[in-house]
Amino acid sequence: xxxxxxxxxxxxxxxxxxxxxxxxxxxxxxxxxxxxxxxxxxxxxxxxxxxxxxxxxxxxxxxxxxxxxxxxxxxxxxxxxxxxxxxxxxxxxxxxxxxxxxxxxxxxxxxxxxxxxxxxxxxxxxxxxxxxxxxxxxxxxxxxxxxxxxxxxxxxxxxxxx
Length: 162
Fold this sequence. Notes:
Number of strands: 2
Radius of gyration: 19 Å
Number of domains: 1
Oligomer: single chain
Mean pLDDT: 93
């Protein structure tokens, strides 16, 4: 399957991707089934404020999970350290082949991790909306603080001049 999709030097772990897709689909199906069994219903509409809150929280949580130095032990079975990537972040490369490589790509890519985090937060709105909003608000506050730290450092560098 992979040989027909990409040349050998650019081989992609398609079976691994299918495994990851299967796990994601099973998790979403499990959440939907659990919601049905417990009588939980998704909100009729999601407020724009929740979309903004969860969007910023998803950004922060996915970067925390996929790039932060402190969470590198969670990624280590699937990635290999390459180098620092700026403030408290790391560059890592997926390791292995098949599902291990596919998971390595997932856990080291904030864009890829976004889908999983957003799904978890959306599920949280169904099962525990108050707690989910609290966790999302905390992650949003951390994201705001990160941007303030970066802005403060940039202002200090600008004030110091060349």
